[in-house]
Amino acid sequence: MKTAESRLVTRAVWKGCRTAVLCTFAISLCAQQPRPPQRPAPGAERTRQFLGLGPPPDAAAAALGEPIFERNCAFCHGPKARGAEGPNLVRSSVVLDDEKGESIGKVVHAGRPDRGMPAFPTLSETQLYDIAEFLHQEVYLAANRGTYQLLNIVSGNAAAGEAYFNGAGQCNTCHSVTGDLAHIGAKMRPADLQQAFLYPASVREERTPSTVVVTLPDGKTIKGTVMNIDDFEVTMRDDNGVPRSFVLGNGTKAEVENKLARHLELLKHYTDADMHNLTAYLTTFK
Amino acid sequence: MNPLRIPLTKSVFIFLSAASLAIPQAFNPSKPPRDVWPTYNGDYSGRRYSPLTEVNAANVQALSVAWIYHIENVGMQRGVGLPDIKSTPLMVNGVLYFTIPDHVYAVDARTGRELWHFDWEDHGGHLTGQRGVGIYEGWLYFMTPDDWFISLDGATGKERWRKKVADEKMQYFTTMAPMVIGNRVIVGVGGDAMDVPGFLEARDPETGDVEWRWNTEPKPGEPGADTWPGASAMEHGGGMTWLPGTYDPELDLLYWGTGNPNPVYAGQSRKGDDLWTCSIVALKPETGKLVWYFQASPHDTHDWDDVETPVLFDATVDGHPRKLLGQAARNGYFFVLDRTNGKNIVSKPFVPLNWSKGVNSLGEPIPNVEKQPSVDGALLSIPAGGGTNWMPPSFDPQTNLFYVNATNGYSLAYLTDTDAKPEGYGGSGRNLWTQHELEAIDYRTGNIEWRHRYTTASGGAGTPGILTTAGQVLFTGDYGGNLIAYAPANGAILWHFHMGRSLSNGPETYLLDGRQYVVAGAGDTLFAFRLLK
User: What per-residue confidence (pLDDT) applies to A258?
Assistant: First the structure.
């Protein structure tokens, strides 16, 4: 961690220097219209730390580096640097040991004549840095699974989904696309929606406390929302909002009501086609 | 082969209390542990079965806390939060040695007082877990998240030397407890974020130098290469070796489980069975030569490492005594093999699953291509993390049952990298619903003799291992902070103790000063129990 932090500082300082250098080239560089850097996915930063991936790449420089790489390097190394005629650079030790272009730049500048790689002596220091950051970004996007985005998951047939909703799935016995599910396709992204109708509690926003009924030895029952439950005791908040706990056994029993029992039952029966069709149907309600 | 000598080096000797006149059991992991716990699994077999009976089904209700050791001054660990003791402590000559990532502790097994603490500065790698140390003579062996193999003096915790095993910038990391066999230390690696090949090494306990290395993938032209489309796929590799294996001293075979192939979820660039990933392998410990293999998941695309302990036990099949190997695999199958030759005897799911369409003539599951990760999601009737994980199982020769903490569930498997040359994970899994349960499996059939479904809320935390004892007590934990004693024959609950955080390691037991202790880790705290007197 200490090492990683000091590297972060190093790169930040270096970036500051580079900004000053960049100003002199501002006009020519802005003409390249870099794509806006993608916003990091939730959890990307946490995953970066967990994986010990080192400082995050300079996304702006990487965007500038991509077309330079495409023009000069992609023919041999592939468009995403995953290898073609030339080696895969996403797992290259030169790239992984590089901090900010110092090693990559040298190789690109001088080439590797012994291995058939030509030299690129006309690329500027800034361009070499941008190429290096593009490579660091390709490594980062592959290795950091926290950045992964689902692709377009809507593949099903909406009409078949409607038939399932009102037929085999019996979804319409509890739900209505004009009632509780109105505009559901606008409220939720398709992947979250797919997950939510399969089992609502698997989506954070849909988690609701479970209800528990405790039966005492004398037959008296107490109802509340579960705070904690295991094989030995149950802690609940009763209808008056008061926390209460009960030791289970010796005639004291607890039963948790699963409001999602029907969803759980359906999980056993869905085909992938049913699921994809239902997703396609529900996403139409914008 | 050779039993290890009793490690009564001068330095360790000073920890022997004057009150302890009993001579410790020969330091021989070929035998079930009594007054010692000298390896990750207690002995070489991986059964985690203790012959001790002082604590038994009749008196376990009087089990009480002897001491508590709480890890102080570590705080949140990078990327993982509070420390989690996943290691099984070694207990040798009255000292417990245990670990968390980057830290080794020596604690007095009688009192729970710290004797020393080795603190390795974090220089990268994954801090996802640390399973413990290995011991040879008076030396300890420890592996760091950034792939250093370090020898420490068991008496002082001072570093003796360090050797680099792999490169953390390639996303290798090490978590396993080094396994000492004779005068070799076996070490394995983890890592799948950057598609690197796996390997297992034997190293010299005196110098740390490599004696042999077994690669978990072949090179082009070698046997097994025809199960990969080409050199590039083999170089992406996988097949990590991150959990200690087991060893049969009579057959002189080392058994190891290997992890998933890479890219993890995107199988399009590695069509074929991808040997020797997701396999149980038998190696010669002198040379590292492969003797046999059994592939638990040909062409895995679900991140289901097959590293789970290959448990060795001798029992009868159809009336004949056999040398067996049992494994409850992460892919949801329970396997029993003849460990002399790897031939399959039982392959049966211990949780519901739809990723496989049955097994082939070798007993190896046949993947269902329709349930491989897809862009629009494949619905699996097993959790994304599989039917179990690394948590130690147990085999009890008194009941002839194999015990495992299993998880039932449903999940979605997505493909996120459709490139012809995917890199990294290339996909992800999402859990829908999960239910943990303790299972007792009949090794002869794979049938579940009894199961205990945990009442604790779905998805609760915990990585509970299992211990069985001749006292007819099974120790494990639920996912809500309880250490629980069960009757191994029928699953009746005999005793429990709420530890605050859930059981995070495999419980162990040993005899010290004539009294039986039970030790369990719960997050950042180690608990020792013994009977009230």
Answer: 85
Q: Using alpha carbons, select from A85, A84, A86, A99 the residue that is nearest to residue A135.
A: A99
What the block records as the tokens of B272 is 């074929």
CB-CB neighbors (< 8 A) of A199 in chain B? 410, 432-433
- A80–B421 CB contact, under 8 Å: yes
Rounded Cα–Cα distance for residues B390 and B188 (Å): 14
The distance between the two most distant Cα atoms of chain B, rounded to a whole number of Å, is 68
Q: How far is CA B141 from the centre of its chain?
A: 17
Pairing of strands A243-247, A233-238: antiparallel
The A residues from 157 to 186 touching B (CB cutoff 8 Å) are none
Q: Measuring CA to CA, which residue among B302, B193, B194, B267 is closest to residue B420? A: B267
Q: What is the pLDDT of residue B180?
A: 96
Active site residue B122: no
ipTM of the complex, rounded to two decimals: 0.92
pLDDT in tens, A222-264: 999 999 899 999 999 998 999 999 999 999 999 998 889 999 9
Q: Which residues of B touch A3 (CB under 8 A)?
A: 122-124
B70: phi then psi, degrees, rounded to nearest 5: -110, 130
Using CA coordinates, name the residue in chain A closest to B196: A91
Asked if B416 and A149 come within 8 Å (Cβ–Cβ), the reply is yes
Predicted local confidence at residue A210, as pLDDT: 85
- A17 by Cβ neighbours in 10 Å (0-12 / 13-18 / 19+) ranks as exposed
Asked if B418's CB is within 8 angstroms of A267's CB, the reply is no
Peptide bond into B383 cis (omega under 30): no
CA distances (Å), origin B154, targets A213, B92, B117, B140, B521? 54, 10, 11, 6, 21
Smallest CA–CA distance, residue A118 to chain B, in Å, is 23
Are the C-beta atoms of B443 and B326 separated by less than 8 Å? yes
Report CB contact under 8 Å: A142, B456. no
Question: Does residue B38 surpass a pLDDT of 70?
Answer: yes
Query: Is beta strand B184-188 parallel, antiparallel or unpaired with respect to B311-317?
Result: unpaired
- Chain position carrying tokens 């073609």: A84
Q: How confident is the model at residue B533 (pLDDT cuts 50, 70, 90)?
A: confident
What is the pTM assigned to this prediction?
0.91
Of B503, B517, B496, the closest CA to residue B465 belongs to: B503
Closest by CA to B374, choosing from B422, B426, B434, is: B426
For the cut 60, the answer to whether the pLDDT of residue A27 exceeds it is no
**Other Cβ atoms within 10 Å of A168 Cβ, number:** 12
- The tokens for B33 are 């542990």
CA–chain centroid gap for A36, Å, is 19
Complete DSSP assignment for B356-396 = EEEE-TTSPEEE-GGGS-BTT-EEESS-TT-S--SS--EEE
